[in-house]
Specification:
Bound molecules: protoporphyrin IX containing FE
Radius of gyration of chain B: 25 Å
Radius of gyration of chain A: 27 Å
Strand content of chain B: under 5%
Largest sheet of chain B: none
Number of helices of chain B: 8
Oligomer: heterodimer
CATH architecture of the largest domain in chain A: Up-down Bundle
Shape of chain A: elongated
Number of strands of chain A: 1
CATH class of the largest domain in chain A: Mainly Alpha
Helix content of chain B: 55-70%
Number of strands of chain B: 1
Shape of chain B: flat
């Protein structure tokens, strides 16, 4: 009688599923198995002290405070858009470095390096696609992030300055995307950047077609606001090199530095805003 | 056995919660979804690569990257010095000034329309109409010669659009150059002057508490934004090209 295996009845199993007990039973089976106990020397005790240490003693996670207001967890409040923007930025950094192994910002090579990347480099097309779509997506998510920050009034004191940093960030996000747009060195790239930079001709005082340029000495198609951007009077190889350096070095560094300040200010301003 | 299992909600948690595990697991989940989505999208949709750059072959239409198409569309109504240089600078500076101009203490950290109607209206109008709607129009409806084409219309590169635009002073009967310039100047100055004066008068009680510089900046930035809309309407409804023509610049 004592050794007779217990036959569970359906009602008991259903009750276990409903109450969630079945999961803790399963977890127990795993964590007490020989494979598990021989691999992991001790368990993780879910104590308040350990929860704090997980954040505070981890170089990546310590960007976070150890405790936050519970309303900051609500996706309906933040839309998660700031975090997604940052994640997309990191994705472009990773895929961008891989693209840089194969791409030369030289008039004769750039376009053919793109072809090579797409047709010969293993996973080259995928890296290029991920880089481009993440960049476009980042533009959209940063606008949405800004919109939600506006709608929740989160720019109000004490967060005014973080909003200002944010406006720099959205500007640099657009510039990052714009400088990258030229690098494929195809028709789409060249003419989009031509249209974009033609605007600089109209810069008051400093553009050769702008208001009041006639009062500034030396302003000419070869020496004006636009030619400083392009390194010449049209979108040619010097512009390609200039945009490459801005795209791969200067703007990411500045934007990265601003993001660090942005995150630091969120904490110094008392965490995510909320009704108080 | 009929006791309903109570659904867990955020309100069951204490006021302050540990980031580990509550936030970190959310971020992890979110990151997983985004990365999987990005990877799948990138496997399915290829980034465009057209023929090699050719400075002697201008495509028609030539479009800026999509996120700048709102500005490119404003070029129809304004000269490049404004649409391409001054307007973007004003947008950036204006956005940065928002926290310093909006002194309404209400609606800090929660969604509310009732407590800050004007602010929500102005921002949403600028973002959704002047930025997003113009971008959508620029991407899908602008064809050769930057003419408007409905999605079902053929992009005819030889479409002829009669140039019937006149300047505002001309429409009012001014033919002489300097009289026209004076008239245009009066209209522009009058718009900003009367707008500012009217606002300051209506809100005169607030001047003490809000501050005069703040109010001047606020109303003039709003007048510029409205002015862009007014000029678009003037062009579309009355074929007005410029309001003010001077030897140096036109508005
Ligand atoms: C590269 C661009 C950006 C990144 C990576 C970024 C990242 C973040 C993150 C992760 C947060 C935490 C809360 C959340 O996710 O909503 C946040 C909050 C915030 N961001 Fe951004 N952001 C960017 C651009 C901007 C822009 C363009 C603005 C506004 C002009 C802005 C203003 C703010 C403000 C004021 C907060 C605090 C919000 C609050 O306390 O509720 N940020 N940002």
């Amino acid at each position: 009688m004592a050794n007779k295996p217990k036959i569970p009845n359906i009602a008991e199993i259903m009750a276990d599923i409903k109450s969630g007990k079945i999961w803790s039973d399963l977890a127990k089976k795993f964590t007490e198995s020989q494979i598990w106990t021989s691999s992991f020397r001790h368990g993780y005790a879910d104590t308040p002290r350990n929860r704090v240490l997980q954040i505070a003693s981890n170089v990546w996670l310590h960007l976070h405070p150890v405790k936050i207001h519970r309303h900051a967890l609500r996706i309906k409040f933040t839309w998660c858009m700031g975090g997604i923007t940052f994640l997309l930025f990191l994705s472009t950094v990773v895929t961008g470095v891989i693209l840089m192994f194969y791409y030369r910002p030289v008039g004769e090579y750039a376009y053919f390096d793109m072809k090579y990347l797409q047709y010969d480099v293993p996973f080259g097309m995928l890296m290029r696609n991920m880089h481009r779509w993440a960049a476009h997506a980042m533009v959209i998510t940063v606008w949405l992030h800004m919109f939600r920050v506006f709608l929740t009034g989160s720019y109000k004191p004490p967060r005014e300055f973080n909003w200002v940093i944010g406006v720099f960030l959205v500007t640099f996000t657009l510039l990052l995307s714009f400088t990258g747009y030229l690098l494929p060195w195809d028709q789409l790239a060249m003419w989009a950047v031509t249209v974009g930079t033609n605007m600089a001709r109209g810069t008051p005082f400093l553009g050769h077609e702008g208001p009041f340029q006639e009062y500034v000495p030396l302003i000419s198609p070869r020496y004006d606001a636009r030619s400083v951007l392009l390194g010449g009077s049209l979108v040619g190889p010097p512009a390609l090199l200039r945009f490459y350096v801005l795209h791969c070095i200067f703007i990411p560094l500045v934007a990265g530095a601003l993001m660090i300040v942005h995150f630091w200010r969120i904490r110094k301003d008392g965490g995510i805003s909320g009704p108080l | 056995m009929a006791t309903a299992v109570k659904k867990k909600t955020a309100e069951d948690l204490p006021e302050k919660v540990h980031v580990w595990p509550y936030l970190v697991r959310l971020e992890f989940l979110c990151a997983l979804i985004v990365i999987v989505g990005l990877t799948v999208w990138s496997i399915v949709v290829d980034a465009p690569l057209e023929e090699a750059a050719n400075p002697t072959k201008t495509p028609n239409p030539s479009k800026a990257p999509w996120y700048f198409l709102g500005l490119q569309d404003i070029l129809v109504y304004f000269d490049p010095w404004f649409a391409g240089v001054v307007a973007p600078v004003l947008i950036i500076v204006g956005l940065m000034l928002i926290p310093y101009l909006d002194v309404n203490p209400k609606g800090n950290g929660y969604y509310t329309y009732a407590e800050r109607k004007l602010a929500i209206w102005v921002y949403s109008f600028g973002f959704i109409v002047l930025w997003i709607a113009l971008i959508i129009m620029g991407v899908f409806l602008r064809g050769p010669g930057w003419n408007l084409f409905m999605p079902w219309q053929y992009w005819d590169p030889h479409k002829v659009v009669a140039l019937v635009n006149v300047d505002l002073p001309y429409a009012f009967g001014f033919r002489d150059y300097w009289n026209s310039a004076m008239f245009g100047g009066a209209v522009v100055l009058g718009y900003f002057g009367l707008g500012t004066a009217g606002y300051m008068f209506l809100e005169r009680k607030a001047i003490k508490s809000v501050g005069i510089l703040r109010m001047l900046l606020k109303i003039n930035l709003m007048l510029i934004m409205m002015g862009i809309v007014i000029k678009i309407v003037l062009r579309l409804a009355f074929n007005i090209k410029y309001v003010l023509v001077t030897p140096w610049f036109n508005i």
